[in-house]
Amino acid sequence: METLVKRNGLFPLVPVNTLLDDFFSKDIFDWSDKNFSSLGSNLPSVNLKETDDKIKIELAAPGLKKEDFKVEIDNNMLMISSEKKEEKEETRKKDNYIRKEFNYQSFSRSFSLPEYIDDSKIEANYKDGILHVDIAKKENGKKKVTKKIAIK
Q: Do the Cβ atoms of 90 and 80 come closer than 8 Å?
């Protein structure tokens, strides 16, 4: 919902003053994002989908390698985590120049799984920046078709 604002009538067709006012009234240094935790780590987005025979999880984590992930299941709790550490060092002796940079990023996501999953049939692969985890359901755990009962 926009707020009603009285505008200067000097330039009715081209609101130059309003462009400048709108630009300078915005907080351009507010880079807050709801996907960042209080510690500043970025939690990847997740898609969950349940079909008749499996549960599918897609976790968006571009820039990582499949070796960076750790996927575990314990007591019907699926845990997906990653830790990545990079160090770069550049030295130029003739200019007496040394630059060393390092980067560390990590995340952990946990999901409670239903009792009817088959933890012996879990597959995971990483392709195009998305980690895909497929968890099969037990045969007796598949959803039954709803049957309508006639009342006599």
A: no
The reported pTM is: 0.60
Q: What is the pLDDT of residues 23-80, one digit of tens each?
A: 555 554 544 444 444 444 478 999 999 998 999 999 999 989 999 999 999 998 999 9
User: Per residue in 4-21, pLDDT tens?
Assistant: 555 555 555 545 555 555
Q: Where are the alpha helices (DSSP H) in the chain?
A: 16-25
Count of structural domains within the chain: 1
Q: In what order do the strands lie in the sheet with 130-137?
A: 46-50, 54-60, 130-137, 117-127
Q: How far apart are CA 98 and CA 113, in angstroms?
A: 50
What distance in Å separates the CA atoms of residue 51 and residue 127, rounded to the nearest whole number? 21
Q: Measure the CA–CA gap between 97 and 25, rounded to whole angstroms.
A: 42
Token pair recorded at residue 52: 């008749």
Structure tokens at 104: 């560390």
Pick the closest to residue 67 from 79, 81, 56, 49 (CA basis). Answer: 81
Range of the domain at 114: 41-140
